[in-house]
Structures are given as structure tokens and as C-alpha cells.
Write a structure and sequence with these properties.
- By secondary structure, the chain is of the alpha/beta class.
- It folds into two domains: 9-198, 4-Layer Sandwich (Metallo-beta-lactamase, Chain A); 209-275, Arc Repressor Mutant, subunit A.
- The chain is built from six helices and 15 strands.
- The strands form three sheets. The protein has a seven-stranded mixed β-sheet with strand order 1-2-3-4-5-6-7, with helices on one face.
- Helix 2 links the parallel strand 5 and strand 6.
- The chain starts with 8 loop residues before the first strand and ends with a strand.
- The mean pLDDT is 95.
């Protein structure tokens, strides 16, 4: 598997090219993938962050052929470049409106608020939206029907698991949206971070198993501690990750606890959590 290098154009298939933004990090892996679909009239999925060099490279790559810009969701590593690319190309912007949780790109203003099951028909491709809330409430995956390839944004990442950050992020929704993908005929996954995944349903099942396994660790941490706040519980429930990641892990821990609270298996007393 070749190394992902920011700025390089990688051919995924005859219809798809990928260019990765220069924003590598703990949360973004090698960087955010922008995907270009089509041969004549082009669609761009997830332009990425507001980095001048990246935006210039994208505009040079699409030339005069870009017709549509689609975003999987409105986190700051996926959608902010939309504004400049749209201004340069006049392309139609497609996606869902940003939630108001303080973590979103509020410059994102879609011309078409796409809903679950709606299709964008290009001259040589069809993209179908699949609403997959959980990482964010406005998260969409896009299925390239001709190739059965699913652009997953942050719903599925290669080599990692995504952070679920309440209140907009929801573990209940996330698991349900993963289950939803098991009923879709998919050949490959093209994630927002990392390489193409060739075993889509196996990967989705692995993620479900991982999340439910983490849920059991959260329950065990609750029972072991008796009661505790997020800082007390994170070291018990996430003892297999670096302490440097605890601030991020606390977010998903809260998402797990809220799911358990919904199911009557945990309860909250102010900032303290107790097994239900």
C-alpha cells in the first residue's frame, strides 16, 4: 500500500481521483481526502480545510469542468475550502446544513440540501446520498452506484475509529448508521482519511464489534469505580490508549455513557456517573 502524500493526485479508478490535504495529525491521519469524480462534468467530494496551497491545487486540478461540490459533513477539516472553490468555479454546493454545536464550519451554505436516498446524476456517474448520523448529525455518505464505491467521510476511517462528540455526535445514531450500511451493496469504501478499504462489510462489522466492546469496558469501569466523573472513568475505560489521547477519548466516553443512560444501564447525578 503506497504512502499517502499531500498534494499528490492518486487514481482510484477511471472515474475517481484523490488528492489529500496537507493537514496530517492525530485526528486526521495522513490528511483529509478530496475526491474528484467524473471525466467531463466533475463532482468534488470534501474539498477539505481552508489551506491556501491546497485550495490552489484543487482549483488547478478541476479546471473549468467542476459542476458540483459535495460535503460529507461540516467539520473544519472537510468543508471550509468549499467557499473558495465555489467562488473560482461557480459549482453547485451540495450537503446538509451545519449543526450549531460550536464545532462546525458555519460558512458552508448548500444550494441543495441533499436528503437520504436522493441522487446526483452526472453524465457518467450517479451519486446517491446515504444519511449516516453519529459522528455528526448532518453526515452523509455518497454511493457511486456504477462502481458500488462508498465515499464515507468520517463515518468510516481507514486504520482508526472516529470520535463521537456529544451533543451533536450520538453513539446510538452512529451504531444504527453502521448497521444501515450492512444492507447496502458496497464493493469498496473511500474514506475521508486513509486508503481505500477493499472489504467494506467486514470493516463495518469490525467497527460495530469495537464500539460494543468499548461499551463493555465503560460498563466495567463504572462498576469498578462505583461512581465517577469523566476524568475518573476515562483511564479505566480507555486503559489501552495513550494518556495523551484522553481529552479526545473523554468525548466518546460521554457518548457511550449517554447511550447507556438512554438504555437504563447508567445514570447521571450532576457530573457524576453511576451504574444503572
Amino acid at each position: 500500500m503506497s504512502e499517502i502524500r499531500p498534494g499528490e493526485v492518486y487514481t482510484v479508478s477511471e472515474r475517481i481521483r484523490r488528492m489529500t490535504a496537507p493537514n496530517p495529525g492525530v485526528m486526521t491521519g495522513p490528511g483529509t481526502n478530496a475526491y474528484l469524480i467524473g471525466t467531463e462534468s466533475l463532482a468534488l467530494i470534501d474539498p477539505g480545510p481552508d489551506i491556501a496551497s491546497h485550495i490552489e491545487a484543487l482549483i488547478a486540478l478541476v479546471g473549468a469542468k467542476l459542476r458540483w461540490i459535495l460535503c460529507t459533513h461540516t467539520h473544519h477539516d472537510h468543508s471550509p475550502a468549499t467557499l473558495a472553490v465555489r467562488a473560482a468555479t461557480g459549482a453547485q454546493v451540495i450537503g446538509m446544513l451545519p449543526p450549531s454545536d460550536g464545532r462546525q464550519d458555519l460558512t458552508f451554505a448548500p444550494d441543495w440540501v441533499m436528503r437520504d436516498g436522493e441522487r446526483l446524476q452526472g453524465p457518467d456517474f450517479t451519486l446517491r446520498a446515504i444519511h449516516t448520523p453519529g459522528h455528526t448529525s448532518n453526515h452523509l455518505c455518497y454511493l457511486l452506484e456504477e462502481e458500488r464505491l462508498l465515499f464515507t467521510g468520517d463515518h468510516v476511517m481507514q486504520g482508526s475509529t472516529v470520535v463521537i462528540t456529544p451533543p451533536d455526535g450520538c453513539m446510538i445514531d452512529y451504531l444504527a448508521a453502521l448497521e444501515k450500511l450492512l444492507a447496502v451493496d458496497i464493493a469498496r469504501l473511500a474514506p475521508g482519511h486513509g486508503h481505500v478499504i477493499e472489504t467494506p462489510h467486514d470493516e463495518v462489522r469490525r467497527l460495530i464489534k469495537h464500539r460494543l466492546g468499548r461499551e463493555q469496558k465503560v460498563l466495567a469501569a463504572l462498576h469498578k469505580a462505583g461512581r465517577g466523573d469523566l476524568d475518573a472513568l476515562v483511564g479505566l475505560a480507555y486503559d489501552d490508549v495513550s494518556e495523551k489521547l484522553y481529552p479526545v477519548a473523554r468525548r466518546s466516553l460521554l457518548a457511550h455513557l449517554l447511550k447507556l443512560e438512554h438504555e437504563g444501564r447508567a445514570r447521571r447525578e450532576a457530573e457524576i456517573w453511576v451504574a444503572g
